Amino acid sequence: MGKKFKLCSKRKVILIVGSIIVSISAVISTINIRYGYSLNNYENYRERNSSNITITEMMNKNLAKIEKGPSSIDNKIVYITVDDGPSRYTDEIIDILEKYNAKATFFLLENNMKRYPDKVNNIINNGNKAGFHGVSHDIHELYKNGASARKEFEVNQDTFFNITGETSKLIRLPYGSKPYTPCEVYNDLINCGYRIWDWNIDTQDWKLNPNQIIENVKINSENKDEIIVLIHEKQQTVECLGEILDYLSNQGYEFKTIDQNQIPQNFWSNNLYK
User: Fold this and answer.
1) What is d(CA 58, CA 42) in angstroms, rounded to the nearest whole number?
2) What pLDDT band is residue 52 in, cutting at 50, 70 and 90?
3) Which whole number is the average pLDDT over 214-221?
4) Integer Cα distance of 213 and 225 in angstroms
5) Which segments does the entry list as coiled coil (predicted)?
6) Helices (H) and strands (E) in the chain, counts
7) Per-residue pLDDT tens for 120-133?
8) For 223-238, how does the pLDDT look when each residue is reduced to its tens digit (9 = 90+)?
9) Domains of the chain in sequence order
10) What are phi and psi of 189, to 5 degrees?
């Protein structure tokens, strides 16, 4: 009886130990698949971090990573884009952006840059990005001939450089790149290296009140993982910008500025999210 009991106990111990080993192996396999760990790079990991680290400690750290969920790469993205500046509202817009740890991309008019050079510098010095919105803001002037649009943006470029010492290839065509821009003008700007950006949320803040603007953003951002929000330097926009930023932040959006090396999103290339 005693021998049988000992045999049963040993078998139970073996089964328990075996189960533990299988469980540990499964966890390690999960970590290997998800994070690219192997026994070899585990040894390297130990050498880099601590000579006393154990497999259990390593697994606990990586399981904690799994529990945290997706990284910032998986977050939803919003580009706040501001047209028609700089203006008397520019500094206030920048202050609101700072409050919500957000940055924006400002598309500037040439005459306004000359009128408010300090505000142009304030845009850049606060970590925002700048592009150009033209000189005339008149499609009849802008598209008068094949080279007229390019010449306007060259003037933008010169004025911006004289104020900041920097250059930019980001542009937003007045009223968007469609339907007014002739094909030859669009191709000419692309061949000159300009990056043309449109939007997929038009807040219509130039004609709506603050409550309508906020509702517009909420409705049109539904089910979109990447949004380009068009706003203007208007009093009503300033009044509701904080609430817009707060809403988008709570919806999981990460605020980003447009980089000059990004693939442009515009109505011609048809790569805007619907």
Assistant:
1) 9
2) very low
3) 98
4) 20
5) none
6) 11, 8
7) 999 999 999 999 99
8) 999 999 999 999 999 9
9) 15-69 (no CATH), 73-256 (3.20.20.370)
10) -65, -40
Between CA 182 and CA 161 the distance in angstroms is 28
Please state the pTM of the whole predicted model.
Answer: 0.73
Dihedral sign computed on CA atoms, order 20, 23, 25, 31: negative
Q: Which two tokens stand for residue 191?
A: 């061949």
Between 9 and 120, residue with greater pLDDT? 120
Concatenate the DSSP letters of all residues of 55-104 into one string. HHHHHHHHHHHHHH-S-GGGSEEEEEEEEEE--TTHHHHHHHHHHTT---
Count other C-beta atoms under 10 Å from residue 173's C-beta: 28
Q: How far, in Å, CA of 173 to CA of 180, rounded?
A: 9
> How is residue 158 written in tokens?
């010169």
DSSP-derived letter for residue 272 is S
pLDDT at 194 over 60: yes
Least confident of 13-27, 66-80, 126-140, 162-176: 13-27
> Measured between alpha carbons, how far is residue 163 from residues 116, 122, 167, 236 in Å?
10, 11, 10, 28
Short-list 219, 230, 221, CA closest to 273: 221
In angstroms, the CA 165 to CA 159 distance is 10
* CB half-sphere exposure, 223, CA atoms < 13 A: 1
Q: Looking at this protein, which amino acid is placed at residue 27?
A: V
